[in-house]
């Protein structure tokens, strides 16, 4: 097992010190990253001591060290899982060949695009969440927010390392651009739509970390199969951190569900809002929104880019070893494609057999949907145990889509085609309205910085972090 060198300016397990040119380039990029972090990272908490975990090794057992640290002093670094001896490419046209340790010239541009697109999501989420600390429901949750943030920052480092190491001048320019784009900025937005959406309250944060970070999980799983070994090894380590982000989302929503059920029982009309909680229909609207924008992140259902990524052995399927046919040359994927009867109007669907390689985005989306359902089932079990009949539900994959075969078309949450006029009339029935946003925000106007307190709208977690109690002082405020 390779060890992490934490004594260097940039912690790493890639023997960075042996490549002085690369080391100097990354050390020159580092101050710009810190400047970005101070400008666009969590606002108002840069001098606080946060109980964070930091990577000290890359094995699955005890890879993290927990201690207090100021976020600007966090030991971001470059960590790759250990190489697999004699690893062979496991899919696509190059299946069976030795994995690549350098970038094949014919794939240089497309591989750089994959790295940049993945890398752009990491700082974007930090930017989206930068003000949430000022309305935190507890110190436990505040610390979890910051852990997610610093790990997204480290994931950015992982992608920047690849750009600097393997893509020359173009890579260095792309690394600079990653710090120049801004989430939601109309002139320099982030590359993918979901990462330009406002995330201004904790209900959105928990939905984001459950649904949008889960897309990240599946993109990383697909890239972890890559024939370009440095990318595969980088993303495999990132997955160990991504799991915590989804845990934050899943348990955060579960705790809201549990508290809402308690407040409903307390009220004679089962009105959670009357008791200062988040009612279940509002929760469903936020679920509808973040789930649908996360579905778009997988790309079009029928995609020549996806086919080329797979054929070139650059991006596989999640857990490729679970499939029998790793070349996917002759396979098909049957899907219902909407038939247009005019701009934005759907008259019906036709069954289309799509070459499997062209449907790889949809294969990945299928896995995601099945995985996302598990959390929804858990939340519904909590409601049932509390005697609440209401059930949260994933909307149809056709609902509120902006890309792919459903992009720009109107469907209800069940997937039935509707007119644009009906969509506009019923939008607030399915999506957070201005009134919903105002109400949720009204619950989160004052942060909870007392370790023994918890906001009224969320239940406490069952356990604290790393054996610490729930009311541990996870954040030591300086102000």
Describe the structure in brief.
This protein has 479 residues and is mostly helical. The protein contains eleven helices and five strands, in the order αββαααααααββαααβ.
Shape: globular
Number of domains: 1
The profile of the biggest β sheet is: 3 strands, antiparallel
Order of SSEs, N→C?
HEEHHHHHHHEEHHHE
CATH superfamily: Ribonucleotide Reductase, subunit A
pLDDT average, as an integer? 95
Going by helix content, strand content and strand pairing, the class is mainly alpha
Low-confidence stretches: none
CATH architecture: Orthogonal Bundle
**Can you identify the CATH class?**
Mainly Alpha
How much helicity do the residues have?
40-55%
Number of helices, where a helix is a run of at least 4 consecutive DSSP H or I residues: 11
User: What gyration radius follows from the Cα positions, in whole Å?
Assistant: 23 Å
Main sheet: which strands, in order across? 2-1-5
Strand segment tally: 5
CATH fold-level name: Ribonucleotide Reductase, subunit A
- Give the terminus-to-terminus CA distance: 42 Å
The amount of beta strand, in percent, is 5-15%
Keywords: Oxidoreductase
InterPro entries: Aromatic_CoA_ox/epox (IPR052703), Benzoyl_CoA_Oase_BoxB (IPR017635), Ferritin-like_SF (IPR009078), RNR-like (IPR012348)
EC number: 1.14.13.208
GO biological process, one term: phenylacetate catabolic process
